[in-house]
Amino acid sequence: MRYAFYIGCTIPVKALKYEISTRSLTGSLGIELIDIPEFSCCGYPVRSMDFFTSLVMSARNLAIAEKKGLDIIGICTGCMAILSEAKEYLEDPIIRNKVNKKLKALGIKEYTGSVKVKHLARFLYEDYGFDRLRERIIKPLNSLEFGVHYGCHYMKPTSAYGHFDDPSNPATLDELINLTGATTIDYPNKNLCCGFTIMGHAEELGLRLAAEKLECLSNIGVDAMALACPSCCIAYENNQKVVGKRTGKEFDLPVLYFTQIVGLSIGLEEEKLGFEFNRIKVDRIAKKLARD
Amino acid sequence: MYNYLLDKERLRYCYQCGKCSSGCDVNRLDGSFQPHRLLHLISIGAIDKVLKSADIWKCTTCFTCSERCPQGIRVTDILWNMRAMAVKSGHIPELLVHQREVLLKAGRLYSVGPIDNKKRGKAGLNAIPEEHPVIAKIFEISEVED
Ligand code: SF4
Ligand code: SF4
Asked: What ipTM describes this predicted complex?
């Protein structure tokens, strides 16, 4: 099981706990993630500058993986959506030919469309298999309750993702967390966007979006939010204090990556899961687990 | 290319039902932001109005409107292209100027310096390159139509 690891721009700088826990988890499960230094930005920010340039950037990344004969696994939902949607646009021969001309100028033979792109959570669900993962769980997290935040780009656009999860009633991440023995709840604004992408352009609107979900989950009283995207984590965890201040609320809601949660359940130590980088203290969770 | 893309994104099939706007959470918080109105303006040729408007920068790119549209219109992508067209016509938000600079220099959205790599090293992670020259080349060759 060897895959090209698409790490993206945000994770290696702003989400070390996600990277650390992903490397520990996949290493322990026998999923070999190969670092590809030639990979660049996926193209997301470039789509607001020039769509065609963004497509060339995405296609270059895809073609590099193709040349190495590796499918792509990533952990940023934004990157996965952009690469997957680029794949969809590149099915059009007119666009693909135009893009391939540019790739030639970059010294890359061509993009053929053969490479597969998957988020690690989806990969665990569809390829690794939950039955196999279940066998690895030695420390069930029965006492924990999570509110799962999928992130818009986890399953949308559905056409680019082969309709693998339902945006109005997503289930795959919940099932993954449930596998660890933890409970997940359904809550009113589960499908709400984190607001991260507009925090720079329309700050107030972005912060208000983040506040709505933080407030809902805080009122319900879950142990933590569980998520699968570094941008969503910045919105809900790094910005939690700012969001609170601006909206006149006080939040204290831990935010965990699904890789940290699954990692705990298969018995990996906290240090190997990057918990030292969690900004909202996870002491209560640790205490609960110690009692189990 | 842009006309080709707008056609591919099915702009002309919009019948102004408003389903995109009624499912949009940004619209719920800021009623003046109405994706269906923006699409209408584009269709009647008032694209300049759209490009100058702060509204196109309020979209989170959540894709909810595209998923809801009964006509299969890629609403999100159309609005996204409006941003790029706005940038081309000189309406560039501050943040984008900065992002472009960092992208050209570092090859990534966030610059990486020795401090970042030191922090990574302490956490047991490998160092990542501080520069990625290919990005500038991609911009250079892609932004010209041929
Ligand atoms: S939902 Fe589709 S058809 Fe209806 S107004 Fe929006 S873009 Fe037009
Ligand atoms: S993609 Fe933009 S316009 Fe569409 S629903 Fe989301 S925020 Fe609204």
From this structure: 0.95
Is the residue at B75 inside a domain?
yes
Q: Please give the structure tokens belonging to residue B68.
A: 């809801």
Residues B68 and B9 placed together within one structural domain of the fold: yes
**Ligand sitting nearest the alpha carbon of B18:** 1
Task: Give how many domains chain B has, as a whole number.
Answer: 2
Tell me, what amino acid is at A145? E
Sequential pLDDT tens for chain A (292 residues)? 899 999 999 999 999 999 999 999 999 999 999 999 999 999 999 999 999 999 999 999 999 999 999 999 999 999 999 999 999 999 999 999 999 999 999 999 999 999 999 999 999 999 999 999 999 999 999 999 999 999 999 999 999 999 999 999 999 999 999 999 999 999 999 999 999 999 999 999 999 999 999 999 999 999 999 999 999 999 999 999 999 998 899 999 999 999 999 999 999 999 999 999 999 999 999 999 988 7
Q: Are the beta carbons of A12 and B107 separated by less than 8 Å?
A: no
Beta-bridge partner residues of A145: A183
Nearest residue to B51 via CA among B6, B100, B87? B87
Helix/strand/coil for A256: strand
* Partner residue facing B110 (CB), from A9, A20, A193: A9
Domain end (from A120, A154, A179) = A120
CB of B56 shorter than 6 A to ligand 2 = no
Query: Is A267 in the same domain as A201?
Result: yes
Whether a cis peptide bond, with omega within 30° of 0, leads into A93 is no
Interface test with A, best of B10, B28, B56, B62 (most A CBs within 10 A): B62
Looking at residue A208, which CATH number applies to its domain? Answer: 3.40.50.11810
Distance in Å, alpha carbon of A202 to nearest chain B alpha carbon: 6
The answer to whether residue B71 sits within a structural domain is yes
Closest Cα of chain B to A169: distance in Å? 13
Q: What is the largest CA-CA distance in chain B?
A: 57
Residues A209, A251 within the same domain: yes
For B103, the 3-state DSSP assignment is helix
- Partner-chain contact A192 B137, CB within 8 Å: no
Both B11 and B53 in one domain: the answer is yes
Residue nearest to atom 6 of ligand 2 (CA): B62
